[in-house]
């Protein structure tokens, strides 16, 4: 049963991502578009796909991935997520600078732009915090809570951005990927309970 469960979970994640990429590739929004715009679109899909597995890795929920390997892969997929967002933003900047200026200054008339920018800055803040946490000598409990809050903003902002925008992804596949990302975040937060230990409570074994 464990092997079957592992197979089904991985098949669902890989299959959903693959279908989303296929739908994106066949989208009418990419017709006659430049290679830069196409790359930006695919980078957005890749970023959403990574958001599905990031929480599962750190919370040791993803089957078949040992604890230490999961933490290590979580760091590398975090880097990949940053790169995907960078390609997405830079690509859209190159193809339409005025729109990106409006988005980054929160003057765009569309709500999805604001959600996307908030998610981007939260992702950068989470990565920055991860990079300097040893220098700051943060308590493990403070680090977990801070990183979890920023990660939650990233996921919620990204999902809101994706749901509201009419882009290259199909409606059904996009909704499913967003649902998985939110569910993965909720499962990880529920398992790790990053708020514990802040007042002297000993963290659970799964959080150490």
Structure description:
The protein has 208 residues and is mostly helical. It has one domain (2-195). Helices cover 76% and strands 0% of the residues. It is built from 7 helices and no strands. It has helices at 2-25, 35-58, 67-95, 97-104, 111-136, 140-164, 171-192. α1 (2-25) runs antiparallel to α2 and α6 runs antiparallel to α7. The radius of gyration is 18 Å and the shape is globular. Residues 201-208 have low confidence and may be disordered.
Helix content: over 70%
Unreliable sequence segments: 201-208
* Overall tally of structural domains: 1
Which overall shape is indicated by the principal axes computed on the Cα atoms? Answer: globular
Question: Span between N and C termini?
Answer: 28 Å
Q: Counting H and I runs of at least 4 residues, what is the number of helices?
A: 7
How many strand units?
0
Strand content: under 5%
Largest sheet: none
| Alpha-beta content class | mainly alpha
In brief:
It contains seven helices and no strands. The chain has helices at residues 2-25, 35-58, 67-95, 97-104, 111-136, 140-164, 171-192.
